[in-house]
Amino acid sequence: MKHLALTIVASLGCLSPLQAQTLPVYLDESKPLEQRIDDALSRMTLDEKIAVIHAQSKFSSPGVKRLGFPDLWTDDGPHGVRPDVLWDEWEQAGQTNDSCVAFPALTCLAATWNPAMARLYGESLGEEALYRGKNVILGPGVNIYRTPLGGRNFEYMGEDPLLASRMVVPYVQGLQSKGVAACVKHYALNNDEEYRHQVNVKVSDRALHEIYLPAFRAAVQEGGAWAIMGAYNLYKDQHNCHNEVMLNKILKQDWGFDGVVISDWGGCHDTDEAVRNGLDLEFGTWTDGLTMGKTNAYDAYYLAAAYKQAIREGRYTTKELDDKVRRVLRLFYRTTMRRNKPVGFLCSESHYEAALKIAQDGIVLLKNATVPDGSPSGKRNLLPINPTETRSILVVGENAIKMMTVGGGSSSLKAQREILPLDGIKARFKSATIDYARGYVGDTVQSYNGVTVGRSLYETRSQAELTAEAVDKARRADVVVFIGGLNKSDYQDCEGHDRKSYDMPYAQNEVVEAILKVNPRLVFVNISGNGIALPWLSKVPAVVQAWFIGSEAGEAIASVLAGDVNPSGKLPFTWYASLDQCGAHATGSYPGTWRPDHRVIDEEYREDIFVGYRWTDRLKAKGKPLFPFGHGLSYTTFKLGRVTADKVSMGAADSLTFTIPVSNTGSVAGAETVQLYISEKQPKGERPVKELKAFRKVFLNPGETRLISLTIGKEALSHYDGATGRWTVSPGAFEALVGTSAADIAARCIFTFK
To answer: How many angstroms separate the Cα of 670 from the Cα of each of 110, 485, 604, 667?
Structure first.
């Protein structure tokens, strides 16, 4: 009789209607979900309830075996399904079937400005997770890019809350359409990595709601996210994994979130706060919440034995416990107990095709200047590189031979394959002589968390020798392609630390300058999730932002360099010339100030709502940024015509549609992203000069023109009033600005709100 529920579940598919009537309510799929949850809850013992709200291993929590609920398995994302580790150790489990397709980092996904790519991403990742038996993927990440030094920015979706919101919703929906829960992270204000366990963020209610929460809200209310991960940092002196305002008030009360709040690993610090302040499922605590503790100490978690003993002693009723268990059961029914799940696939060709397509759609052409050429005009743009006419290409840079799927923290993967840039270029430019020079040494680590980097990175030559080799080979090359930028080592693009400097690391600037003296035909392909100072930008004719783009990196980069793919990515953040152009640094508010006891660091967001282009638009920056938010070039040219509105004024219940013709005026098919910004003409209080409120990516053949429509509602005009806790808009004149970046506005249209 003990295993009756398991037997029933196993035979559900062959039960007759009469037999089904004998099922317990919690197993009867004809009953409403909440009724089934209540029935299951009523059958659980106190021990079973406590068990399901904390981990039993590094990445799993127990189900209710007596009632037939399987264990719940989580795994890191958001760019692929992390390889399995041992039950109670971080070391690799040594399996041979836990490789994956590595999808592009989320900065690249955001750079596509294409919600269809986000849906494809979520569905593909969900299928990989299904095959691997994972019920919850710990992603996507939507924390705002506040400073370019943020070590984890590469996992997030840029600086703008509207862009991040529009991209996270289809990702969540795509992933969960496969019966795998999205655990959207890190909620909230996890905008830098250094001292992430000690940072207490001080931010205005307005900035919180206008800048840092919209993507989370969209994931919950539009995407229907089944799980949210609390952040390590503090807000109002409470850790965000058990924060009264963040979890109980905003997330669960105001937004109506019915899913599970999962702690970040080691993010829980106190039983009483965890009980009362909204944490539902505790992971990774060990015994002190911050550092290595006892092994197999899951009963010592804050929501384990200590909580159970407090209930038995009458210090708590079961009110909070039952709410937590209801939420966990709801997650079970959505994942582990879901019948007729789609079929999972691992490393399928369709997934590699998706990874390639997303990478190609997100690569950004930052600069493409003319160089001397044998054409009738005497010069042409350096890119694309003609595969049939180019005789020799020199590839320079460690990043051309370094696996970028390995390292970086919890997003590190064991990819089944990763096409390196050097190999991709060799495969595409077969008629040319391809040579390689390392140029610099950035990282010689050979493995990370049990995954090896593939090609050896050991190097014994001095920097002088490496520079001399690159210069000597560059003299003889038709084109030099420098694959450089950051990597995923500590203090680069990596979890746990922020970058120490905005400068290009290692000796890359030195090598670039030396090469330019002997060969000006240089393409710099930057691999990073962040902006970097580019002191030689005026002398380098072509710059490509290639992100961390996963399994198909080499093929994607080569296809853009050769012109097989016309680049159409747009920057999801402002690329500053120097840190003093960034509000967080210009105001001196990053990285914060330690309290006298040196246990907490207060970081006040003094730039307030003026993040990214909102700051540079206020003319507080010193000069123009290197590249504005939304910037991205093409191998063709586009023209935007006159924008018109379907009405001259709108009310609170109205929507307003703007229409603009977009033409491909060049000779190559390509895609342009039309961006709609809204500006209040005479604001009564402080408002940004303009804010992104809609966008649309459109593909056009040469000579083709299409009318593009962008629709907004009242919310696009509103701002958050911290005094009243409400969104509000004042009657008056507004201006719609339509362009191809925050700095390239092609058309304007005045309208009023009444």
So the answer is: 18, 27, 43, 9
Number of residues assigned to the chain: 754
> Residue 341's Cα: distance from chain center in Å?
26
Residue 642: C-alpha distances to residues 286, 410, 595, 675, 703 (Å)? 61, 47, 55, 14, 18
SS (H, E, C) 427-488: HHCCCCEEEEECCCCCCCCCEECCEECCCCCCCCCCHHHHHHHHHHHHHCCCEEEEEEECCC
For 557, residues 6+ apart whose C-beta sits below 8 A from its C-beta are 363, 421, 424, 425, 483, 525, 544, 546, 549
With contact defined as beta carbons under 8 Å apart, do 107 and 156 qualify?
A: yes
Residues 709/713/715/718 CA torsion (nearest 10 deg): 100
On whether the CB atoms of residues 194 and 151 are closer than 8 A, the answer is yes
Q: In this predicted structure, what is the pLDDT of residue 442?
A: 95
Give, in order, the Cα–Cα distances in Å from 296 to each of 59, 74, 134, 274: 13, 18, 21, 21
User: 407, 351, 358, 384: which is closest to 556 by C-alpha?
Assistant: 358
Q: What are the beta bridge partners of residue 393?
A: 434, 479
485 has pLDDT over 70: yes
| Distance in angstroms (rounded) separating the CA atoms of residues 691 and 695 | 12
Confidence of residue 2 (pLDDT cuts 50, 70, 90): very low
When comparing pLDDT for 376 and 186, which is higher? 186
Q: What are phi and psi of 520, to 5 degrees?
A: -80, -5
- Mean pLDDT, rounded, for 187-210: 97
- What's the pLDDT score for residue 168? 98
**Contact by Cβ (8 Å): 191, 143:** yes
Confidence of residue 5 (pLDDT cuts 50, 70, 90): very low
Enzyme catalytic residues = 264
DSSP one-letter code for 528? -
Q: What distance in Å separates the CA atoms of residue 286 and residue 298, rounded to the nearest whole number?
A: 7
Q: How many CA atoms lie within 13 A of 504 on its CB side?
A: 23
Q: Say which range, 297-311, 618-632, 640-654, 689-703, has the weakest mean pLDDT.
A: 618-632
